[in-house]
Fold:
Amino acid sequence: MPRILILNGPNLNMLGVREPEIYGTQTLVDIENLCRAKAKELGHEIDFRQSNHEGELVDWIQKARGAYGGIIINAAAYTHTSVAIHDALKIFGGPVVEVHLSDPQTRDPFRHHSYITPLAAAVIAGKGPAGYEEALAFFRRTPSQ
Ligand code: DQA
Structure:
């Protein structure tokens, strides 16, 4: 059974009240529940976490090495700024799927660059919470995991 770590970056704890016209009305707890149901269906074991702190995300990624078969990450604003998260994901070495609720490519120019994408086996953006389900399904298609 692949064990997958799902990481969420800053301000995603505010989903539901945060710019609903962009991010929708579902809360992070709703998304976690969606992920738990999908993981059960696929036979994955998941850990689902959120932090507003770059260093905490880095710590979790470091500890994931050897402990998880893959990482699903919505690094939120750190997507566009964090060399530290990029470097940690490189150390992790396993498959990484980058998820965004919105599609950063169609938004502000400062959202167009991602430090995660060069390390990602797949990028799923603009599909709302369903993007997390798609990311979980990605691991079903990776027999080595
Ligand atoms: C986001 C997109 C980022 O540009 C933004 O900073 C976020 C959320 C998304 O899920 O669409 O916080 O990662």
